[in-house]
Write a structure and sequence with these properties.
alpha/beta; seven-stranded mixed β-sheet; four-stranded antiparallel β-sheet; 14 helices; 13 strands; about 40% helix; globular
Length: about 375
């Protein structure tokens, strides 16, 4: 005999959260359709197709000797390496369990019921989730050409706004806001609202930018005490499975972030691998070059297939396919995993991560066969 239970007494804003939907794992697809995992191509999660750097693998294996001990809670070696790379003091750096953790920490430190966060339509889903988890109000600004409309975002800032999220390049659309426009936005926000409104500049895909588009966001941190710049080792550095991210901000903000950051949030292996990857310039250049060529390969195919796509500055391309659920299912049956983005308000689009040349071609061939059937 079972006893009827009462509903869980969770806060309404938590019960209302739709959990984050990650890209389908290879093993899950293999079980679902009876496929050989070795023959499946995953182009769904913006991972680096090169795999982790050999330098990081060696550092991780060496660090395994100390796994009976807790990680360094302050991540001294990694912070020292990051401080040297970006020319900032170590106390300007916060480490995270991926940059996703940094976004959550910022929301935890600065949002509460009665506050609001501003972010763009079709931007990273975690902005919505982190805001919702704190019971704060969402101010979603309509996208312009699938990207950020910074003028409209500035106008949307309300008296209760505490956070503004900007993804640059943006996920899932791949758009980019030039550095001078970001700087002008920050100047307007700081002049109008001082340090009451914090801007999070999420640069997870920064390393994939062509050199002419790169700008020094740490210089903006020096200018604006209300700015947090977030970066990750999950993309171009090839360490997605280890979960390492970091933020750069002035000490007052960094102090707030560290008050709510979980202790030991970046594990020993991740810290060691990130230090090594940060110093592996050859690997980073290889990742950039491979991505640039793969992006051209995909875009040429989309043009040949007469499919509309959003020019991308990241390691993925957003393509309009019409009946996205059907085409995605047909791709899955053929052992190709891409990312539906209906949850991001783009029900007729698919986001395709850039893989190795042969992986890209598998996708292109499968898509062409589906569209011509």
């Amino acid at each position: 005999m079972t006893t009827a239970s009462k509903p869980l007494a969770a806060p309404a804003h938590v019960s209302a959260i739709a959990p984050y939907q990650a890209g389908k794992p290879i093993e899950e697809l293999a079980r679902e359709f009876g496929l050989d995992p070795a023959g499946i191509v995953k182009l769904a999660s913006n991972e680096n197709p090169l795999g982790m750097p050999g330098s990081a693998r060696e550092a991780m294996l060496a660090a395994a000797e100390s796994l009976a001990r807790y990680p360094d809670p302050n991540g001294f070696d990694l912070k020292a390496a990051l401080a040297e790379r970006y020319g900032v003091p170590m106390n300007w750096i916060t480490l995270g369990n991926g940059s996703n953790d940094i976004l959550e920490i910022a929301a935890l430190a600065l949002l509460e019921p009665g506050a609001s966060a501003v972010y763009a339509q079709h931007s990273f889903a975690v902005y919505r989730l982190a805001t919702q988890a704190r019971g704060a109000r969402h101010i979603v600004v309509p996208a312009r050409d699938y990207g950020h409309d910074l003028d409209a975002m500035f106008d949307a800032i309300a008296d209760d706004t505490r956070l503004v999220f900007i993804a640059n390049p943006n996920n899932p659309t791949g758009t980019f806001v030039p550095g001078e426009q970001v700087a002008a936005f920050l100047e307007r926000v700081h002049a109008a609202h001082g340090e009451r409104v914090t801007v999070v500049l999420d640069e997870a895909y920064n390393e994939y930018l062509d050199p002419e588009f790169r700008f020094d966001s740490t210089e903006l941190v020096r200018r604006y005490p209300n700015l947090i710049v977030s970066r990750t080792f999950s993309k171009a550095y090839g360490l997605a499975g280890l979960r390492v991210g970091f933020a750069v901000a002035q000490p007052a903000l960094t102090d707030l972030l560290n008050r709510v950051r979980q202790p030991f949030n970046v594990n020993t292996l991740a810290q060691a691998a990130a230090v090594a990857a940060l110093g592996d310039a050859a690997y980073l250049q290889q990742a950039y070059s491979l991505n640039k060529a793969g992006k051209a390969q995909l875009c040429a195919a989309f043009e040949a297939l007469k499919l509309r796509y959003v020019p991308s500055y990241g390691n993925f391309v957003l393509v309009h396919v019409g009946d996205a659920p059907r085409i995605n299912l047909e791709l899955l049956k053929r052992g190709v995993i891409v990312r539906p983005v209906a949850g991001d308000g783009l029900p007729e689009w698919l986001r395709v991560s850039i893989g190795l040349p042969e992986e890209n071609q598998r996708f292109i061939d499968a898509l062409g066969a589906i569209l011509s059937a």
